[in-house]
Amino acid sequence: MKPGPKSKQDELEEAAKKLASSLRTYADASYAAQQVAPDEELNAAYRKVEIARKIVREGRIAHALGCCLPEHMSHWHAWSQRDDFMRWVKFDASNIVSTRATEEIGARRIEVTTNDFIFNDRPYRLVFRNGGLSSAPGDDTYRGEVHFYAGEICVAKFDICKDLMDEYAQWEFVDVTGFRVGAWMQDVLDMTAQIEASQHRVISDFIDERARKAADEIDLG
């Protein structure tokens, strides 16, 4: 049995579908024609940056230079004026020299703190560039950069930030903008381990002393 003739409405709907399909094919072809040919050099650059991110994040270099060391050294410039300064340095650093300056870039004021020191008989420098509060409306974030030098060579450049709305706000790693693999990485991890072990001892001693005092005030009969 042959199908009956199509109604005018059916013919219009079929024509509309064909036209829509044709236009979509044209649109896709037009978009593809406007795309720039793949830039292998650029793609390689993206891959290289991603590999560096993976190394510093998973290898704890991001934590060391993006959080631990900037936080620990944040008061070195002021503390270095004190006679008991070395008491507050919680890793085996020596020959410490800390300086601070201010740079003005347009309306921005950047506080630059430079900390030079010796660790494991090798010279290092950590430059902390504090850009202050973000200029974006409603953004309660401080922005900064860490530049770390092994000798005269800058071996790491990180963007960092601090969210003032966090209860325990501290500097945190954001991204890597420069990185050179080298033996300095083990030294940075050792610095961080010494700082964190010292912090852990302070907390443990506080908790232990609190327990002792509480025990002295308890009589179980």
Describe this structure in words.
It is a single chain. With 221 residues, this protein is α+β, with helices and mostly antiparallel strands. The chain has one domain (47-212). Helices cover 43% and strands 29% of the residues. The chain contains 5 helices and 6 strands, in the order ααααββββββα. It has helices at 8-34, 40-58, 61-73, 76-79, 184-216; strands at residues 94-105, 108-119, 122-133, 141-150, 153-163, 172-179. A 6-stranded antiparallel β-sheet has the order 1-2-3-4-5-6. The longest helix is centred in the C-terminal third of the chain and has 33 residues, at 184-216. The mean pLDDT is 88.
Assembly state here? single chain
Average pLDDT metric: 88
SSE topology string: HHHHEEEEEEH
Distance between the termini: 103 Å
Helical proportion, percent range: 40-55%
Question: Radius of gyration, Cα only, in angstroms?
Answer: 30 Å
Q: Which residues sit in consecutive blocks of at least 5 with pLDDT less than 50?
A: none
Which key phrases capture this entry?
single chain; 221 residues; alpha+beta; 5 helices; 29% strand; elongated
SSE blueprint:
Blueprint (H helix, E strand, L loop, with lengths): L7 H27 L5 H19 L2 H13 L2 H4 L14 E12 L2 E12 L2 E12 L7 E10 L2 E11 L8 E8 L4 H33 L5
Antiparallel strand pairs: 1-2, 2-3, 3-4, 4-5, 5-6
Concise description?
It is built from 5 helices and 6 strands; from the N terminus they run ααααββββββα. By secondary structure, it is an alpha+beta fold.
